[in-house]
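Teaching assistant's notes for section 4

Start the section by putting this record on the projector. Ask students to predict, before seeing the second block, whether HDED protein will look compact or extended. Collect guesses on the board.
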Amino acid sequence: MAGPVGTPGSRKLRRGFGWLTLLGAVLVLGGVVGLVYTGVATLTSMVLFGWLLLVGGLVGLLQAVQSRGSNFFWLGVVVAALNLAAGIVVIRNPVGTAEALTMFAALLFLTGGVFRLVGSVVVRGPQFGWTLVQGAFGVLLGLLVLFDWPHSSLYVLGCFFSLALLFDGLGLIAIGTGGRQMVDLVSAPPPEDQEQSHD
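Reveal the predicted structure now:
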């Protein structure tokens, strides 16, 4: 439990939740800017994705070298090499990667929507209406992205990336502000102590 108001423990907790709120605000700002400039957000997300693949490939290669006496050595080397190669391709050609991933996302929306539509009609469960709406929305979204491809690759991934930043930031802000309020409530002196201090 946190100590009384002003103790190092409560101040440290409040500071930590304050930093969490600040990080959430930065993410929200990045999400809003990304929604305004979706093309830049798409290219940024692709470059970040490429660097994540590169770092993951290097880490996997180091782990494979450290476990070179095991049976999984060559599997680790192959997976690390694939990650490194994919990272280089993504960084060197972020536009082409965005086009390919947008096509994949559109096909995913389309097939998922069709399966939901067929499943809702065949099963007709208690969530029939909601599943039908979800399926129709998935099919519509997939068709819209496909019909505007490859131009849609300039904004679809950036929009998703920015929305993820926005909602993650809002979640961090809620956790940070709620945590600070909880620290204040827990560390506040009981009412009888306040009355005695006034006396």
